Amino acid sequence: MSTTMPTDSAALKSQSDELALLGLMQLVSPALPIGAFAFSQGLESAFELDWVRDEASLGEWLSGVLEDGLTRCELPVLARLHQAFDQANGESIAVWDEWLAATRETAELAAEDSRLGASLKRLLGSLDLLPSEEPLPSEDLLSPLLPNQAGYVTLFAYTAHARGVSVRQTLLGFAWAWLENQLAVACKALPLGHTAAQRVIEQLRPVLVNAVNQALTLEDDELGPVLPGLALASALHETQYSRLFRS
């Protein structure tokens, strides 16, 4: 029985895909030292207000944020930023980075986006994944297109694109990292066990996939988060008497 050996090009393609996958896994890992664990995105305040009190209400809250927030804001803009880096379109990158900043309805949400973006940029520099200020011809020419104070979503798009991650996988990874971080918040601030957190993940996995599917179909004039409850919770978090997470 003969065995068909992979061609060199097929082997190289497979290796490239695997490296891209590992790069995405590194980017979405909770161990990535950018400080995402320090922010709750209003969830800690929702616990205090008794809007979220158990596994069921947590699943409802996160599903709502996915469907009315990430689906209409971060995910479609992330796709546009990925495409803009692919086309080396600095104007589009700047426009969408500014658009995202304008959607942050509280100082807490704005600070999270800017601080995580700055932390990720510093990390990339420490890992030699950003070229010097005067890059050699062989170095990446996309980083000069990054805004000086680019937000987290923009840096995420840059990093995923630089590692060869597809648009769809980039969106799935971003949404997954968000979900894991929110569940980590819940496990710290609620009497929620890790097994219960895994049940919430099982419940929301199809919601997450649907969010990515929908985000990839939206036109520019359909974008914009509709999360008044989250905005209110984030605003009230600033004056909450006792906090585990940054405001």
Automatic annotation (TrEMBL):
Its main location: cytoplasm. GO terms for molecular function: nickel cation binding. It comes from the Bacteria. It holds the Pfam family UreF. One of its GO terms (cellular component) is cytoplasm. It is found in: Cytoplasm. The keyword Transit peptide does not apply. The keyword Chaperone applies. Keywords: Chaperone, Cytoplasm, Nickel insertion. Belongs to the UreF family. UreD, UreF and UreG form a complex that acts as a GTP-hydrolysis-dependent molecular chaperone, activating the urease apoprotein by helping to assemble the nickel containing metallocenter of UreC. The UreE protein probably delivers the nickel. Required for maturation of urease via the functional incorporation of the urease nickel metallocenter. This is Urease accessory protein UreF. It comes from Vreelandella boliviensis LC1. The lineage of its organism: Bacteria, Pseudomonadati, Pseudomonadota, Gammaproteobacteria, Oceanospirillales. The gene is ureF.
